[in-house]
Amino acid sequence: MDGRPATADDVVEAMREFVWFPPPRPASEFFSRFSAPRSCSKWISRLECNLYYYGTNYFILILLIGMSFLQKPVAILTAFATGLSIAFFSDSSVRHGRPSMKGSTHICGRPLSMWVFALFLFEVSCIFWASSCNFLIVPWALYVGLLVTLIHASFRERNLKGRLNRFRKEFREAW
C-alpha cells in the first residue's frame, strides 16, 4: 500500500498471491458412513486421511462453532481483528522484516512498517478481548470445535477419493 486507492488490478493480483483452500466437500458426503476404527493404526490412518480430505469443512466447522460462542457484537469484531492480525503476522514480509513489494504502508499520511501495523492491530484486539470479557469463552469455543473435528475425523469412514488424495499428498512430499 502506497497511500493511493487500490485498483481492480491490485485486488486481482493480491487474490492470485493468496493460498486458497480447496473447496469444501458436500454435506451429504461429510455426514455419511460412520463406524468405529478397528485398531489404533487404522484410527491414525483414518484420522490423517479425513483431516486432509475434509480440511476445509473442518475449518468452516470450527469457525462456525467459535462464532456461535460469541454473543456480544464487540466480541465478533474482536475475533475478526484478531484473525486479521494473525493473517498479517503470517505474511512472509512481516515475519522476516523485509519491506513489502508494494512499498510501505501509509496510515494518516505517514509511512508505517507492516510489522508495526500488525503488532498495533494485535494490541487493539487484545484490549477489545479484555473489554468484552470473552477471555474464557474463546478457549472453550476452540476446545469444542477441535473436539467435534477430532470425533468426526475419527469415526468418519475413509472413502476412495480421500485415500487417493492422501496418497497424492504423500507422493508430492516424497518428490
TrEMBL record:
Q: Which GO terms describe its biological process?
A: vesicle-mediated transport
Q: How does it sit in the membrane?
A: Multi-pass membrane protein
Residue ranges crossing the lipid bilayer per the database entry:
51-69, 75-91, 112-131, 137-155
Per the record, the domain of life is Eukaryota
Q: Which GO terms describe its cellular component?
A: endoplasmic reticulum; membrane
Among its keywords, does the record have Flavoprotein? Answer: no
Check the UniProt entry and state the signal peptide residues, or none.
Answer: none
Q: Where, per UniProt, does this protein localize? A: Membrane
InterPro entries per record: Prenylated_rab_accept_PRA1 (IPR004895)
Main localisation: membrane
| Protein keywords | Membrane, Transmembrane, Transmembrane helix, Transport
Function of the protein: May be involved in both secretory and endocytic intracellular trafficking in the endosomal/prevacuolar compartments.
Q: Which family does it belong to?
A: Belongs to the PRA1 family.
Q: What name does the UniProt record give this protein?
A: PRA1 family protein
State the organism's lineage: Eukaryota, Viridiplantae, Streptophyta, Embryophyta, Tracheophyta
